[in-house]
Amino acid sequence: MNAELRDAKVQSARLALERNRAELRAALEPAPLTRHDTFPRSATFRWLTEHVTLRALASTAMAAALGRVPFGRLIGNALFSHRN
Predict the structure, then answer these.
(1) Residue 32 Cα distances to 16, 19, 39, angstroms
(2) Neighbour count for residue 63 (Cβ, 10 Å)
(3) Alpha helix locations (H) across the chain?
């Protein structure tokens, strides 16, 4: 009976060690990155970074610059309405 009790204690100790190892591995391993853990997190900001291009920004800046000054409006109309 003493040997059976010792075997049960050994089994219990091994099981406890295996559980401790598994918990330590889970705690120390880095979690896999998901789409929401990466920069940028905002769906709107992700959309902007994927769809806004340098060409669109340049076009908007040029239209704003030409639209502010009356003379710029005149030049803009002349440039963009001229057809070959």
Answers:
(1) 27, 22, 14
(2) 13
(3) 2-28, 43-51, 54-68, 70-81
Q: How far apart are CA 70 and CA 38, in angstroms?
A: 45
Model confidence at 41: pLDDT above 80:
no
Give dist(CA 13, CA 19) in Å, integer. 10
With tokens 């003493």, the residue in question is 2
Determine how many CB atoms are found less than 10 A away from the CB of residue 56: 10
N- to C-terminal Cα separation, the chain = 106
What is the reported pLDDT for 76?
Answer: 76
Distance, CA of 33 to CA of 30 (rounded, Å): 9
